[in-house]
Amino acid sequence: ALQLHYSTDSMEVKPIMTRKLRRRPNDPVPIPDKRRKPAPDILLRSIWRALNYLLTDEQIMEDLRTLNKSLNAVSLLFSASPSSPEHLPATPAESPAQRFEARIEDGKLYYDKRWYHKSQAIYLESKENTKISCVISSVGANEIWVRKTSDSTKMRIYLGQLQRGVFVIRRRSAA
């Protein structure tokens, strides 16, 4: 095996030759050395050290502020996923009273204490108080697709939007 040796006195790379001896029949099989990825905090510390030499303190603080904003946005995005409604952050604009129960089971939507299914006629109301006549065209894992009866265009409505009251569904007679 060829190993590289780095010396601190010069930038010269020196190969070191090692000899591998034959294993005796009764000796245990050597376990290969498993390399682990460095822990994230070690990586961050080494990045921090490198940045200290290349950037001014002001540039570093600006980058940290940008990273914090990005991390907060990502954490809000993931916490608002339809699969985990219990982890939604409580914002002053949204009180718990404005929340609706919405979930999908066995290809059907359970919303506001009623079950909705594919090809069911509904009214879709938005926050702007628009009322659209629709038909549920499909029920996915985290969303439903509705087809507007006026122009046959399709819209995707996510469970999170129904839970937050961005859209409200009402039953409509099929006639």
Describe, in plain words, how this protein is organized in 3D.
It is a single chain. This protein is α+β, with helices and mostly antiparallel strands. It has a domain of 70 residues: Roll (SH3 type barrels). It has a five-stranded antiparallel β-sheet. The chain has a three-stranded antiparallel β-sheet with strand order 3-4-5. The longest helix is centred in the middle third of the chain and has 23 residues. The chain starts with a strand and ends with a strand.
Unreliable residue runs:
84-96
Largest sheet, order of strands side by side? 9-8-7-6-10
Biggest sheet layout: 5 strands, antiparallel
Assigned CATH architecture of the domain at 102-171: Roll
The overall pLDDT average reads 75
Strand content range: 25-35%
Attribute tags:
three-stranded antiparallel beta sheet, five-stranded antiparallel beta sheet, elongated, single chain, 175 residues, SH3 type barrels, 25% helix, 10 strands, alpha+beta
How would you sum up this structure in a few lines?
This protein has 175 residues and is an alpha+beta fold. Helix content is 25%, strand content 30%.
Which helices and strands appear, and what pairs or packs with what?
Layout: E1 2-6, E2 13-17, H1 40-54, H2 57-79, E3 102-105, E4 108-111, E5 114-116, E6 121-126, E7 131-139, E8 143-148, E9 154-158, H3 159-164, E10 167-171
